[in-house]
């Protein structure tokens, strides 16, 4: 991918003078490259195989919507597709993601995450065109399972060894009877939130943003915090967000749902 011959001509011309460095952080199915060049603004280029489960078009649409809603996120600079691969070129936010921002204490980082999610969750859901309620997400999870792209080797430790069909049956059986709907990030893990100078600077990897139960974000944030910093910082995050006594069943349900994405 560092060879311009592999890029569409328009992108190759635009990126002349840039160096490509693979960014291995995160679990996206797309390949991600950080681009830097002398006297040039840093950029990110994402590349994925074209197909029914691609996410780059979704990400571009959501970044445009989020920017229009007044919340910080990368600028969409260009999109290209040749039918085999999709490319998305976006601007780089200032700072470092919250999993890597070692200049900040873990407590400060979970506080920034909580505030960023609260700001997102306060957006009016009627203004958001992306519907990720369970009536939409469960069929999407089933389609991914039937296509064989659910990675059973990457399940959380408590679910390793179980098959996707077993877990999907559990999803259907345990489906909550109501949803507290907000605009969710959809993949609210520490690497998807960026801070600069001790302040939150923006949301990244937004391809799954949409209206869903707030536990979609709270559950993944709690798991990410426990995995990165230890379980002791989960409660300070919840306190800062304003959900001091979460529902353990809902936390587990949305972590289970995430196994399919």
UniProtKB/TrEMBL annotation:
Gene3D superfamilies: 3.90.1200.10, Phosphorylase Kinase, domain 1. One of its GO terms (molecular function) is metal ion binding. One of its GO terms (biological process) is response to antibiotic. InterPro entries: Aminoglycoside_PTrfase (IPR002575), Kan/Strep_kinase (IPR024165), Kinase-like_dom_sf (IPR011009). It is an enzyme of class 2 (transferase). Its EC number is 2.7.1.95. Residues 24-252 form the Aminoglycoside phosphotransferase domain. It catalyses: kanamycin A + ATP = kanamycin 3'-phosphate + ADP + H(+). The active site is at 187 (proton acceptor). Signal peptide: none annotated. Pfam families: APH (PF01636). Keywords: Antibiotic resistance, ATP-binding, Kinase, Magnesium, Metal-binding, Nucleotide-binding, Transferase. Mg(2+) binds at residues 192, 205. Belongs to the aminoglycoside phosphotransferase family. NCBIfam families: APH_3p (NF033068), APH_3p_II (NF032898). This is Aminoglycoside 3'-phosphotransferase.
């Amino acid at each position: 991918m560092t060879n311009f011959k592999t890029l569409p001509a328009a992108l190759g011309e635009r990126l002349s003078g840039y160096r490509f460095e693979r960014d291995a952080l995160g679990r996206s199915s797309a390949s991600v490259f950080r681009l830097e060049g002398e006297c040039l603004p840093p950029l990110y280029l994402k590349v994925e195989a074209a197909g029914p489960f691609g996410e780059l078009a979704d990400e571009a649409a959501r970044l445009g919507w989020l920017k229009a809603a007044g919340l910080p996120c990368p600028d969409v600079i260009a999109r290209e597709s040749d039918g085999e691969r999709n490319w998305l070129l976006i601007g780089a936010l200032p700072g470092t993601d919250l999993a890597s921002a070692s200049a900040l204490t873990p407590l400060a980082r979970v506080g920034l995450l909580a505030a960023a999610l609260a700001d997102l969750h306060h957006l009016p859901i009627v203004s958001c065109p992306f519907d990720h309620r369970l009536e939409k997400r469960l069929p999407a999870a089933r389609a991914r399972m039937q296509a064989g792209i659910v990675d059973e080797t990457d399940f959380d430790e408590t679910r390793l060894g179980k098959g996707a069909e077993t877990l999907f049956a559990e999803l259907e059986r345990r489906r909550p009877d109501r949803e507290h709907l907000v605009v969710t990030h959809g993949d609210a893990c520490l690497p998807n939130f960026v801070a600069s100078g001790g302040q939150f600077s923006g949301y990244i990897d937004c391809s799954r943003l949409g209206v869903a139960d707030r536990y979609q974000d709270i559950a993944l944030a709690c798991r990410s915090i426990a995995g990165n910093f230890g379980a002791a910082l989960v409660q300070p995050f919840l306190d800062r967000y304003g959900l001091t006594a979460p529902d353990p069943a809902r936390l587990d349900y949305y972590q289970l749902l995430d196994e399919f994405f």
